[in-house]
Automatic annotation (TrEMBL):
The entry's keywords: NADP, Oxidoreductase, Pantothenate biosynthesis
Pfam families on file: ApbA, ApbA_C
Top-rank EC class of the record's enzyme: oxidoreductase
Name of the featured protein: 2-dehydropantoate 2-reductase
């Protein structure tokens, strides 16, 4: 989705870093984004290419350890990283590999992207949210704002990126997990109070953990979370539900796993996320083949 926008702005801007096997596979067929074919330039670690100004990482968290080393030849002194991974831990992992001073905090929210095979369709691309660890509007933040404006990629630079990251984490812990377990699209949460009650129960555990860490997630944030979910395309599905339907591994460790671990460290009880963890682990174990 984002690569297609940047490619439309200037096709020389976008280079997709992959391993040799993916390069061979991807070069065989254009990717369709809203039915438009895109042939990106694929780089592997052995490709000759200048270092990147900006690296946008959009793999799943469990794929990060394999993906990060591929980037090494393209990381220079001024390379900046934006991680679109859900959850609250990928910035630390990228920082450990390439230096935390290179990493901005980031996430994408409110999109209704749907993946079918390697093709993507969407009606609402939501927006990307990013910022410096100290929330400064630094020269690199200004440069990325200018790039996204030119490419018509909606974005926000919030006053407190850490509070915003925890808000997004709370959205994912609630809606991704409940929707994936019950196999329901966004519209069901608008229709049934019982579905909203499940979201709120899962979110309250995130809120309690966040508050113990000094992150300002209030009751108002839970209301805003419900409003965010109700504003999404009723037929749209969370990325976790799409993973379950395609029998791909889910981001369970990134969501319930993280809430349980943080809850244990801070002595916050997390029974709803323990239930979701075990139930979704069983869903994955039940995949055929
Ligand atoms: N989908 C959504 O609505 C949202 C997703 N996110 C986050 O964005 C990230 C991406 O999500 P999503 O697009 O749904 O995930 P997908 O699983 O659809 O896409 C992940 C992509 O990463 C590729 N990949 C995996 N390993 C490597 C590697 N070693 N080198 C290069 N490419 C690799 C995969 O390739 P292949 O298919 O060939 O294995 C796949 O194309 C996730 O972290 C998710 O949490 C955030 C907000 C919303
Ligand atoms: C729920 C949603 C679309 C929120 O932006 C999301 O982050 C996901 O599906 O992973």
């Amino acid at each position: 989705m984002y690569a297609s926008k940047l490619h439309a702005l200037d096709d020389s801007l976008v280079k997709v870093v992959v391993d040799e096997e993916r390069k061979r596979r991807y070069e065989q067929k254009a990717i369709l984004v809203n039915e438009q074919p895109y042939r990106f330039q694929y780089l592997t670690p052995s490709s000759e290419a200048p270092v990147a100004d900006l690296v946008i990482i959009a793999v799943k968290e469990y794929q990060l350890a394999d993906a990060l080393p591929l980037l090494k030849p393209f990381v220079g002194q001024h390379t900046c990283f934006l991680s679109l991974l859900n959850g609250i831990s990928s910035e630390k992992t990228i920082g450990e590999a390439y230096g935390i001073e290179r990493v901005l905090y980031a996430f994408g929210i409110a999109m209704d992207a749907q993946r079918t095979g390697r093709d993507v369709s969407y009606t609402d691309m939501g927006h990307m949210v990013f910022g410096e660890a100290d929330n400064a509007v630094s020269p690199r933040v200004k440069a990325i704002k200018a790039l996204f404006e030119a490419a018509a990629i909606p974005y926000q630079v919030p006053p407190d990126i850490h509070q915003a990251m925890w808000f997004k984490f709370m959205v994912n812990v609630a809606v991704n997990q409940v929707s994936a377990l019950l196999r329901i699209p966004f519209g069901v949460f608008a229709k049934y109070q019982e579905a909203r009650a499940l979201l709120i129960q899962a979110a309250q555990e995130v809120q309690e953990v966040a508050q113990r860490k000094g992150i300002d997630l209030t009751e108002t944030a839970i209301g805003k979370m419900v409003d965010t979910i109700l504003s999404l395309n009723p037929d749209g599905k969370t990325s976790m539900l799409q993973d379950v339907e395609a029998q791909r591994p889910t981001e369970l460790e990134t969501f319930a796993g993280e809430v349980i671990r943080q809850g244990e460290a801070l002595t916050v009880a997390t029974p709803i996320n323990r239930f979701l963890y075990n139930a979704l682990a069983l869903v994955e174990k039940g995949y055929s083949g």
